[in-house]
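Morning!

This is the sequence you dropped in the shared folder:
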Amino acid sequence: MTGTPFVLDFERFGRIGLDEAILCAGKTVEQLDLILDACSERDRGLLLTRLSPEPASRLASRHRERLDYDPDSRTGIFLRPHPPRLSPDVAVVCAGTSDLPVAREASRTLAYYGQASRSFPDVGVAGLWRLMQRIEEIRACPVVIVAAGMDAALASVVGGLVQGVVVAVPTSIGYGVAAGGRPALESALASCAPGVVVVNIDNGYGAACAALRALKAAGASGG
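The structure's back. C-alpha cells below.
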C-alpha cells in the first residue's frame, strides 16, 4: 500500500470531549494495523467498533497483545482507556438476551471513557415483572440506555417510569415484520413517553456517546 488512506482526528477530544472511534467494518486488516501503528506512535488510546473476531485475530501480534477485545460486542480498546470519571453509574437496560451485543457495545464504550455503568439484562415488557423488580435500581441512575428490538416497547415503558435521560437503542432483533429493526426504530421515534432520545438501529456506541454528553452537560462527569 502506498501512503495512508486515513487522517486520524487526534484533536477531537479537545473539541467535543469524545475521541474519534474507528469503525472497523469495511476496513482491511492492513488498514487497521496502520491505524493502530499511528496511535502507538502517539501513545494514544483508541476505541474500535464492529471489529469481528476473524480480522481481530489477524491483526499484527504487536497490536493484539495491547488490545482488550470483546467478541460479543465486537469492540476493542487499544492501549489504555480514559481514567475513571466521578459521575454516577449509567444504567444499560436491554429487553432480551438477543439484545445483549448492542447493550454490551454501549457498556464497553462507556468503559473506554472511564464511565461506570450497571447492566440490567432481560427485562423486556413481555414479562413486565422483571423490569419492576429492578426499577428502583434503574431510577438511581441519571442516564438510562435502553436496547430493545421487536416493537422496542421497553424504551417507552422505562421513559414513563424514570426521571433521568432515557436513550433508546432500537435493535435489529426480530422476525417477520420486525426483521431489520426498522419497526423498532419507528416505534421508538413515535414513543408517547416525553423526552426519550433515539439513536440509530444497533448503535450502542452512539447511545453511550449521548449518555456521556448528557452527563457532561449536567456537570456530573467530574472532569
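Headline: The mean pLDDT is 92.

More detail when I'm at my desk.
O.
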